[in-house]
Design goal:
Blueprint lengths: L2 H18 L7 H15 L4 H8 L2 H6 L11 H4 L1 H10 L5 H16 L3
Helix pairs in contact: 1-2, 1-7, 2-6, 2-7, 6-7
């Protein structure tokens, strides 16, 4: 998947959550922030490709879909977007931010 597809998958997950659980999207500002959290976290599994530009691109392509796409490390990688949105945003429920980040990562980590 490329980053456009990752982003669209995160946007689709946000729309699915909004329509399935309308009580979670009662504030439009809060919904917009959760939308961007899902879009951003859906792109995290491909961080290994971006890091390949800093180092050896062949190594990065050989190990793509490795640890960054693993079920074991997804909860750990979900901490990154949750911390960013917690520090910079007005949403102060870290557990909710982490769950949204985890959903975004799960949406794209295990797809083909």
């Amino acid at each position: 998947m490329d980053n456009l597809t990752h982003s669209l998958t995160g946007a689709l997950a946000a729309k699915l959550i909004e329509t399935t659980f309308p009580a979670l999207a009662n504030d439009p500002n809060e919904h917009r922030k959760k939308f961007w959290l899902l879009v951003g976290s859906a792109n995290i599994p491909d961080i290994d490709v971006a890091l390949g530009f800093l180092g050896d691109p062949i190594f990065a392509s050989q190990h793509h879909r490795g640890i960054t796409h693993s079920l074991l490390f997804a909860p750990i990688f979900a901490l990154l977007p949750a911390m960013i949105f917690f520090k910079l945003g007005k949403l102060k429920n870290f557990k909710t931010l982490w769950v949204y980040g985890l959903i975004g990562i799960f949406c794209t980590s295990f797809s083909i």
